[in-house]
Design goal:
five-stranded mixed beta sheet; alpha+beta; Acyl_CoA_acyltransferase; GNAT_N_AcTrfase_prd; seven-stranded mixed beta sheet
Amino acid sequence: MTDLIRDRRESRSVDAACAAAEAVARTAGVDIRLLDSVSELEAVRRLYERIWRTGESSPPVTADLLRAMTKAGSYVSGAFDEGELVGACFGFFSPPARGALHSHIAGVLARMQGRNVGFALKLHQRAWAMLRGVSEICWTYDPLIRRNAYFNIAKLAADPAEYLPNFYGPIDDDINRSDDTDRVLVRWRLESPDAEAACAGRPRVTEAGAGAAVALSVSAGGGPVAGRADARTVLIGVPDDIEALRESDPACAAEWRKAVRDVLGELLVEGARVRGFDRTGWYIVDRQEAE
């Protein structure tokens, strides 16, 4: 973490953020550092091609764009396992008045899953941002990918803020396939009590409570089953592995996209708050009280 140059007056929370990032990286067994050379950024491009299986014709990002971002002061980092690049993350700044960083892509090789490499990258990004006076990081994720929903909402304690239908349009890769690219925008308030606890290894744990209504569940055949969404607390289920479902049954995957858009999307438009995500695959959503 020697590359996290302390370029503003440190505070207790910034010191804690740096210490947490260093501890998680050690536990994950990776070295995380900022990247800016053309060769390093080209390695990031190749890594993302492997993760999203895009091929050279449509990479998620190009090395020259990353190079421009680093020159402009944006964030690009890599996670190294015994010298091999196994994960990377980059983001760029929002308008100055926002005091926020938009984290566009973070990815880790599949064989590294379970070692908290993605967690280490996000904590490094958080410490880097806080050292520069940034109080919030935003990013988007596919609400149908269960492990990402848990990671963002529970493990990091980021808060879903907006549902974005078909946000990126068609993406030519083997992850999204022909599915619409609906995304949820999350806001990670870096010094909130929930975020501080999560970064210290205490994920956000949420219980639905009595009286919760099941608005969307998984049928025995793997498809979506609509229920009630009129209770104070609403539960929205997602499939176990939407990426595998896109390969085996694209029509069923498309049904899930529409169902989650209709339920979760509408609730967020109405002002409902996603309070948590249960590890077994449920969004826990609280509706606004009628005035």
